[in-house]
Amino acid sequence: MHAIDFKEIQEKLSDGFRPWQRSFQFWARATDIYTGYKVFQLRMNFVKDVNKHEEMWERQHELAAHKVYSMCSDLGGFFLKIAQILGKPDLAPAAWVRKLVTLCDQAPATPFDAVRVVLEKELGKSIEQVFETFDEKPLGSASIAQVHRARVKGDKRDVVVKVQHPGVEKLMMVDIRNLQIFALYMQKTDIKFDLFSMTKEIEKQIGYEFDFKREANAMEKIRRFLYDNNRKSPVLVPRVFPNLVTRKVLVMEFMNGIPILSLGDEMAKRGINPHGKMAEAAKFNILHSLSQAYGQMILKSGFFHADPHPGNILIGKGSEVALLDYGQVKELPDHLRLGYANLVIAIADNNASLALQSFR
Question: Which Pfam families match (predicted)?
Fold first, then answer.
């Protein structure tokens, strides 16, 4: 086999993503979206019919959503993370959420030659020495890493191999700096909210995601907690192969299932009425499993999976839920955990004085 030049591969991968080019693309597109809203606000001053305002805002949000989607999709990397964050109903207009939620796991894949280099450098052995089989085509590719299906030598179970994209950490830091400058400008001119501190928290949290050893430890900690505290864990958590974990490579148990966003299509294929009793029961079981898992993680343990976007939730046989990707986890101090638990109880009991005390 011919020798692979890792430096050459890295240069090819980053060819269209030089820092100054990414910065230019970001600022050009962000300025276009921002000025679009400013011009729209001026136009709204001349529209006297208040009933038309809501419809006009919806159209403007739809237009901006397409532009934000294109920016995140074309730039990839960190901007796919931003799409995941903004693609939640409590953070962005409904039109943005509908568009951005479809961006899960749509990052461009790293060529297999580069994947091989990262794997062999990290594990200290050739792919053939470690794996019986290894699918060159990835199962999916996200902002920081991509995953491949494989089988470890001497083990009949299928595994998932998560491999970090080469050079992605450096590019993400460039993107974060640009976003922080934009956040500072926005909070000084338009938004009365500390956006900059939010971007600093994003920077800290994303920094953790580049260490797969940390992710493996978090996965095992949550897995042990859920399996030890229930007769049957409300969600499935992949088992880690500890001897095949490095900072840039993570080998774990393969989870069979359907991405939660594809569940409706899968039901239609099988001739199941999405509004029938069977479908409603399945939806209830899925929601119950997720609520129970998150309730226990947040309120009982205080250590929880902090990235439950649709790309990280698989639905298996019998509506079993598998929770994937533990790069984002948070730990609540006891006083905050107990304060939040009391707040939930106070809201459930309609107890205003306890709610106020819990907030404090």
Answer: ABC1
Q: What percent of the chain has pLDDT over 90?
A: 61
In this structure, what are the phi and psi dihedrals at residue 115, rounded to the nearest 5 degrees? Answer: -60, -45
* Distance of alpha carbon 333 from alpha carbon 353, whole angstroms: 23
Average pLDDT over residues 172-198: 90
Distance CA 175, CA 61 (A): 24
- pLDDT at residue 16, rounded to an integer: 44
Q: Does position 10 have pLDDT exceeding 60, yes or no?
A: no
Angstrom distances, CA of residue 354 to CA of 10, 113, 220, 296: 57, 59, 35, 21
Contact 255, 316 (CB under 8 A): yes
Give the SS3 label for residue 118.
Answer: helix
DSSP 209: T
Instruction: Give the C-alpha separation, 93 to 37, whole Å.
Output: 13
DSSP reduced 3-state for 262: helix
Residue whose entry in the numeric block shows the structure tokens 């609520």: 291
Residues forming the active site = 307
